[in-house]
Amino acid sequence: MKIMVINVLAIGDVGNVMKSLSKITKKSKIHIVNFPKDGKGIYIHDDDVDRFVSCKVKEQVEYINKIKNNYDICIVMGTGERIAYLADLNYISYYVGRDIDAPRFKKNSREIWFKTPLHKLNFLERKFYHNTFKNAIGHVAGVWVYPFLEKYTKNGIKMDMYAMDDELFKNTTHELDIQKTKFTFFSPQRMGNGKGTDLLWKALKICKTDFDILQVNWFDEATDEELKIREQLLNELPSQIKLIPMIKRKKMPEYYSFADAVIGNMIVGTWELVDLEGVMCGKPVLSYSDPNHKLLVKGNYIQSSFLPDSNKPEDIAKIIDKVVSSKEFRDELFENERKFVSNSTDKEWVSNWWDELFETFSQKYGKIHKNSSSISIKIRMGLFLIGNRLYWKKIKKLIKI
Description:
alpha/beta, 2 domains, five-stranded parallel beta sheet
């Protein structure tokens, strides 16, 4: 029996989540349109995806309008939400971070580990982004961000399992021009309060064992507060930290395999992609796991196997020392994490879940475009442009889409 293929248009791809998912779905064929690479995008984004040529919102909308009828349903990540809204699509919004814990439609929204707002938008801008949120036909979030989604909708869908690229992330022979003279951790995540770097720095000062940490040299830099935090972290750099340049994604498995263990996030209380990747490459991972945060895996709520289960600096230090000093502890930790990661990234289960979601929404709505009136669509663009403080003459010219 021939399986009906659902053509899915993905706009935006945070963390290559859609790219990994596109490799495993059976009923759904996912075409990704991502945003132009910035200076750091060459490291963190896959190359073989469609990309907007322009950074101008109007031109991005025009491109989507040209191709949208080739697809049955749309899923968006990040600012892809505004493009789908302006193109009048039926879209599912998928949140994995800042777009819902500090949403643009909330006045002076900030993440809980920062004092200053991430967004300082005017009323019209917030109104526009609230419309993009309300216009989504579905909202999906998981891991640590789902509780934030629950604040804004009663119909949010929880998905704590991720599709992982097991072709890329696997234990491999390392060919790195790096000399390892002592136990070595690899820490590929950004540095900043949102990653718990300040807590890790405090823990390293009280560690008793001897080790190195290969820390990728990149930071959260979206606000003045984050820039100050960057300066402070660099000024207080622990002796164990060895900064290394940013690494292209396809090179990451070599670094995971080279290291003896991996250090992940010490603040959010659940795993991030770094943690899953490290385990898939055969290494134990240290990542703070909040005992009060349960993950929904295959219909059951379970506790993460990552350690430490406290992010007090002294507790982080104890776990680090134990990993460095005890092979028996490392092996036991890795085996527990391996079982957990294998279960929570089950390709068959994740593939079926997303296939069913896309099928349900495409059957319910019938087509990718809403067929709203041309006046309504122009009002949307006008609200966006006015909110961004453009002049009326420019607005009249630009809203002709």
